[in-house]
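Quarterly update from the structural biology core.
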Amino acid sequence: MLYDQQAVQANIRNREGRRVFFLPRGSQLTSEARDWLTRERIDIRPGDQARILEYRLENGGVLREKPEHMTHLRDNILVEKTHPIIRFRGKMDTLQAILLLCQTQVRDREGQLGEILALARKIVACEVMEEPLTVETLCGLTMEEQRRRSHFPQEHYGTPHFMPQAADGAEMGWLNLCRCAAREAELAAAQALKREDIQRALNRMSSMLYLLMIETKAGRK
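Predicted structure, tokenized:
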């Protein structure tokens, strides 16, 4: 298999507090992917080293086999699938799936939705790797610009706050579904994580999706 940068980024793992990439036997990296790993100072290890020989529990216990009712929290640490952080990750999976479907249905917003989807994936990576998350702009707007527009849509778009109706069409329905999924992920993050950066990013995401709804209502691209 040939791993490009996107495939590599999706398969980064955490071992002993470090980001690593396990390259399976017989597989290769594109030059772009290898350059990215070098820039990010991510170790490339043989694929046969990926197998975990010992699992640890949050209470300090040790297991040799992974039970079906448990899953990975980080590295070789196992938790039950009802763990709040696992629930949060599930909400993020759902959010990404809905955003991806929305891109196929709301073509006029494909680029903006793609940027929001990229942020969702960045949030997941930063949470799993326990790395800080920074978001300078989202869909071309700073946090302050976004806040001002979402608070005063009449001033910026000529459209007041509104509740979507069936008459607004399927595209509005898809955008609203994305907004709701982002809000659910934000609530799950608030329950599971003590990370203001992730909660702030998810709040910005749901607000940005609301702005896309307002722009659609106003007939703006």
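The two ends are 40 Å apart (CA to CA).
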